[in-house]
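Notes to self after the Tuesday call (sharing in case useful).
The group wants a holo model before anyone commits to mutagenesis around the pocket. I volunteered. Ligand is magnesium ion. Logging inputs and output together so the record is complete.
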Amino acid sequence: MYLPLKAVLFDFDGVLVHSPLDLAAIKRELFGDEKVYIIEGIEALDAGEREAKTALLTRRELEAAHDARLDPFVPDLFTWLENHGLARGVVTRNTREVVELISKNHSVDFGVVIAREDAPPKPDPACIFAACEIIGVEPWECVMVGDFNFDVIAGRSAGCRTVFLETEKFSHLDPGADERIKSLDELIDLLAEWIEIY
Ligand SMILES: [Mg+2]
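Result:
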């Protein structure tokens, strides 16, 4: 089932960047003990409450973004992608403002960015299709790399190859990705193997 590889799509938080963003704490702040995903929970509210909770979420995300650090393997990985003619992009449930802020603070070009305001967010594959369209590739020519179920579900639903990055927070998950890695530097070996086939 190997097909030519043209682009790598990344989840943002926990994969390319690490920040104090604590979604569990934000969820408690917004919804108490209610079992709900933040973005979907906010979407379901009436207009007034939606606006207030969106403002609080956005504030917490921006606070965390100021203290974000880049994963140490990102510069080498991005250079490797460039040297091998692979495009890159970010598909995130975070906001464009956060990605742009971190991009500026760390002088790094993440490539095409699809944030939650751009397309229905993961696990909906629509955000993956949007990224592919801008890059000019088909989903089956892409790898989606993420550290949460939603990343793998969205990637797989779109038809991408998927890589699950094990992190402390979510290593117990097994979303059925094609490959599992423990660190971003392992991705280079994996991609090298995949492009070698062609
Ligand atoms: Mg993540």
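Two things stood out.
Residues 23-66 form one domain.
Helices lie at 23-31, 38-43, 47-66, 74-83, 96-105, 126-135, 149-158, 185-196.
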